[in-house]
Amino acid sequence: MSPDAETPITEILAYTDESWQEGPPNAIFKRMRSECPVHWSPEMPDFPGEAGYWSVTSFDDVHTVSRDWQTYSSEIGGFTAVTDAVLPLELSQAMFIGMDPPKHDRLKALFQRGFTPRRIAEHGDEIRGITLDVLGRLDGMDQCDLVDAVAQPVVSRVICRFMGLPAEDDSMWAELMNSVVAAGDEVLNPDGPEVVQEKILPEIFERCHELIEDRRANPTEDLTSVLVHGEVDGEKLEEHEIVMGFLLLMAAGNDSTKATYCSAMRAILEDDEQRQLLLDDPTLVPQAVEEALRMFPAFAHFRRTATKDTVLSGQQIKKGDKVVMWYASSNRDESVFDDADRFDLRRSPNDHQAFGAGGRHFCLGTALARLELTTLIEESLRYYPQMEIEGEPKFVVSGFVNQLRTLPVRLGPRAV
């Protein structure tokens, strides 16, 4: 939703369900970058008990906040703008994304070896096989929804495979993760955000308890076993820390690639020139991936909390204030990216902030996300080069996850 040009910038709110009906409120962010790049909002109308927040919208300011963990903490108030309404703060703090160094560094290091580019590349054939299997299920279909028919089953199988979960549980875990990360979306979570704490988290804990007991008795090589048997400072993780580490990896694996792939395909299918470039030269797909990551970061924001009084771009930030880094805005900063609202796979350089802006919390799964995105886009276009959008795509209504809920397409003739 675009703000009224007459509305004073001080009265505009970035985080409301109304503003996110059609994805990120790019017009609002553009005004903020121009008029007030570090912007104070005194309330969150959809979460009446939540305190106000600073919106950090420019590339350089997001870079500053992201790298200064001593001033801007991930742990004190959690890593999302909404502190307690979805996940209780103590559970957010049990994830390494919700910790500060040094514990953050030590816990993250448990997984680092499994996510190096070299280790991820070893799974390339397996990920391509999963993608081809899913695309093969479309045989005989004229139309489908790319979100449900392609993106969701591919990303679910990939992350569940990494976690050591059977294929028959893919859809169940996907539904649970969608309900948590898109808690405010009436379609993905029709019972409302409160059901996350009342019903969904208890179910996740119950299912994870069974997994934990099994891995304790029968160690494996999967990431669930890494959590169960890993040690930080010579001590094994407590059960709630294992569960929240599991949830973090599952949620990120479920949503990030799905979100960016679907928005990338939409942009490609809406631009005949970009599509033809990729059909003529598939080696350009990695460049399309980077441009999709820039324009459509899977997570619209992460939050920090000021540990002391400080100043950012002239604004006096007080100790305890929420500081929200809007990647959906910083990746379209006109001072960094020419024609920032245009999808251009030939853009170079393309130093986006889709995986964060550096610092301790830079995304662990960058290599896996890039590999999945490249494979999905390559094979989708190879199988269905004449695919067209059929109908109106709809967004998940969320100020946290930046993704399409539906992307209806007409497949066209299969080419391979």
Overview of this protein structure:
The protein has helices at 26-35, 59-67, 89-92, 103-112, 117-121, 124-136, 146-163, 170-181, 194-217, 223-229, 239-269, 272-280, 285-295, 327-330, 366-383; strands at 38-41, 53-56, 72-73, 143-145, 231-232, 235-236, 301-306, 310-312, 315-317, 322-326, 388-389, 394-395, 404-406, 408-410. The protein has 416 residues and is α+β, with helices and mostly antiparallel strands. It has a single domain, classed as Orthogonal Bundle (Cytochrome p450). A five-stranded mixed sheet has the order 1-2-10-7-3. A three-stranded antiparallel sheet has the order 4-14-11. The protein has a two-stranded antiparallel sheet with strand order 5-6.
Features:
single chain, 416 residues, alpha+beta, Cytochrome p450, five-stranded mixed β-sheet, three-stranded antiparallel β-sheet, 15 helices
Question: What's the rounded overall pLDDT mean?
Answer: 94
Global Rg: 21 Å
How would you sum up the global shape?
globular
> Helical stretch count?
15
What is the number of E strands? 14
**CATH class placement:** Mainly Alpha
Query: In CATH terms, what is the architecture?
Result: Orthogonal Bundle
Q: Could you give me the name of the CATH homologous superfamily?
A: Cytochrome P450
The percent range for strand residues is 5-15%
Instruction: Note the run of SSEs as H and E.
Output: HEEHEHHHHEHHHHEEHHHEEEEHHEEEE
The share of residues in helices is 40-55%
Strand order of the largest sheet: 1-2-10-7-3
Q: Looking at CATH, which topology would you report?
A: Cytochrome p450
Class from secondary-structure proportions: alpha+beta
Query: Into how many domains do the coordinates divide?
Result: 1
Unreliable stretches: none
First-to-last CA distance: 41 Å
Question: Biggest β-sheet, characterized?
Answer: 5 strands, mixed
